[in-house]
Design goal:
single chain, alpha+beta, 4-stranded antiparallel beta sheet
Length: 145
């Protein structure tokens, strides 16, 4: 069946293998542009992206034909190869074998985009581990209600 309209907004978080800080700031934009291209080639739209040294956040409006697992896998596999082939990481680069995907309502898009784009300031206050624990607690509490 063809889906005429969709509202499938997903906030993804991918983490480097071992949470190693191996994405150099000088290569951040090139990596973000590459990932944007992957999203666009899959009939989806990227709203915001930010590559931190040990993790990346991105908000996508997904095509209904692309699951969260498929999107995360395509981006992880392709970007890992791109980063290694172009020597954009600080050493051998790899993503962890799991990612996170959080659904986002249309009314929250602006807030989530600001959150993603404000990563440098955010991480001056809170570590990635603290941030991730907060995400999990928030979504687990939401599920319990």
């Amino acid at each position: 069946m063809k889906i005429e309209y969709n509202n499938l907004y997903t906030h993804f978080i991918l983490t480097t293998f071992g949470r190693n800080r191996i994405i150099p700031e000088k290569n951040r934009i090139r990596i973000e542009k590459y990932i944007t291209g992957i999203v666009n080639r899959n009939d989806s739209k990227l709203y915001a992206i930010y590559a931190n040294p040990e993790h990346i956040h991105f908000l996508v409006s997904r095509s209904p034909s692309v699951s969260e697992v498929d999107m995360a896998t395509m981006i992880a596999d392709s970007s890992e190869k791109f980063i290694n082939d172009n020597k954009l990481g600080a050493g051998p680069f790899g993503w962890q074998q799991s990612a996170s995907a959080f659904s986002v309502s249309k009314s929250a898009i602006d807030r989530v985009c600001k959150y993603i784009l404000n990563q440098p300031e955010h991480h001056r206050i809170k570590s990635f581990s603290e941030e991730y624990e907060q995400f999990l607690k928030h979504y687990q509490d939401t599920l319990k209600k």
